[in-house]
């Protein structure tokens, strides 16, 4: 497994590298899975990133059948992770949940499980210890994931999420964790929303690509002011500060040939017609990424 | 000028290094300057960090007299900066404003002007270009600042401010800028709120300290959820995720012997009695920093 969860060349764009558009389900969460599959069919979108909760609600086997019948590739499943619990019971629960996530990923036919690794436990201030617990948990999960043909994809989250969602804040840290394991077992996610500000990220993309560890490439724009809680402030492509061509060229130069998955959490987009948002997102992708 | 804006040894604590408490005016912005001076006198607080707007309202000469009569040291003036304008008129205005800020710093008797360097101009996505414009602006400002006995202190802001407030997001980037100039002309700010998440910051603190470039050490805690706009979400010491002893030991090991300035922007603190907040902050400093 190299710099992509799925093989194949970009159809119809002629741009090469990371030019294949996929939509992450959360970008258009107002669409049910069948609505999403239909909208993708109408617009010629061939890849979708899915989330565990809607997949569980619809059913893993039913989801697998739906995407197969629609001719869709599942580019990733979001998300496992939250591996920083310090107490034995919390740790055991997290490992069990992640093994279930691996099974779900395999069940819907994707080889990529995205991990949001977890923040600091309540009252804990030890970032270094939390990162070590993530490494320990990965070591426990890798054999099961490997047996299922699923690669774990460590995602660095923006530093504003360091305390409550993910103590892995840079691509360099994500690689430090991933490199303790074979590249076909643990990869990393390159997400522009989380990494765009970091002048050291380009060198880390190169490091990731050289080792064949780029498991997913995700896009969202950076817009301000951020909303309360900051989670739902991601911007539509072109609305913010991210230079997407720079990032596409970066991952392409690093050898990545997989999907480019647009993953935007945004209240305003969710309040609109989902098919219209998907069409707009595809249009923005052509205007700002290709 | 070394790792401190002001000379002298820590009184009464016996802790050495960065053990001298100072309060930044914005932590208790509900207090007028005379009220702040009186409250500091009552609590034995000997250092204050001031802001331009309240100083301008009260008057530069009057502020100088007030702090002198109260026996207070002004540890820093916040803030100059916003040096990223790409158009000649905007750039000229910024330079003029920063020269005025230098004059005000000198006027109130502090040798440290904190710079928040500025975000991306509207529609601009070039972080690298913006950082170069900051370097150019520093080169224009340094001679005037040097003539006034004022050191420019480049502050790295948390990456969540990269687009709209400061494209300098890490201590390493701040040092890359500062090191183009002599250490007694351009230093850096070490602020826990902005740097706490970064595993590369400790090595950069060492780099800064070795070169005598730590111009200010500021504290606030990291708390979530962040409020809308994220600016006023800084936490009282001990309420969040920052390990303050780790940071105090870090700057102390790097040779810093200056003030430790507590700078918290927090709506809830501002809504309370300012003298009570100052007393609480001092108490928290003793409990969580010393």
UniProtKB/TrEMBL annotation, chains A, B:
Presence of the UniProt keyword Isomerase in the record: yes
Domain Xylose isomerase-like TIM barrel: 39-280
Organism superkingdom: Bacteria
Annotated keywords: Isomerase
Molecular function terms, GO-annotated: isomerase activity
Protein name listed in UniProt: Sugar phosphate isomerase
Organism: Streptomyces carminius
């Amino acid at each position: 497994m190299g710099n992509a969860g799925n093989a194949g060349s970009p159809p119809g764009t002629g741009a090469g590298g990371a030019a294949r558009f996929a939509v992450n389900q959360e970008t258009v969460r107002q669409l049910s899975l069948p609505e999403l599959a239909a909208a993708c069919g109408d617009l010629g979108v061939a890849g979708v990133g899915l989330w565990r909760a809607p997949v569980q609600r619809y059913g893993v086997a039913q989801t697998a059948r739906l995407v197969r019948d629609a001719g869709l590739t599942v580019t990733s499943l979001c998300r496992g992770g939250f591996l920083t619990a310090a107490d034995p019971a919390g740790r055991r629960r997290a490992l069990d949940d992640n093994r279930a996530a691996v099974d779900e990923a395999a069940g819907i036919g994707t080889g990529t499980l995205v991990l949001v690794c977890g923040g600091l436990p309540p009252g804990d201030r030890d970032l270094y210890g939390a990162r070590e617990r993530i490494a320990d948990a990965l070591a426990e999960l890798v054999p099961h994931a490997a047996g299922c043909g699923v690669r774990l994809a460590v995602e660095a989250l923006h530093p504003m999420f360091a305390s409550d969602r993910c103590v892995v804040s840079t691509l360099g840290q994500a690689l430090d964790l991933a490199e303790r394991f074979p590249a076909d077992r643990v990869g990393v996610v390159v997400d522009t929303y989380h990494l765009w500000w970091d002048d050291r990220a380009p060198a880390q993309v190169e490091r990731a690509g050289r080792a064949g560890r780029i498991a997913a490439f995700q896009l969202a724009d950076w817009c301000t002011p951020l909303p309360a809680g900051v989670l739902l402030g991601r911007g539509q492509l072109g609305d913010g500060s991210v230079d997407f061509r720079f990032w596409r060229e970066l991952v392409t130069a690093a050898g990545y040939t997989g999907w480019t998955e647009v993953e935007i959490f945004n209240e305003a987009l969710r309040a609109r017609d989902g098919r219209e948002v998907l069409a707009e997102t595809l249009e923005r992708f052509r205007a700002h990424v290709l």
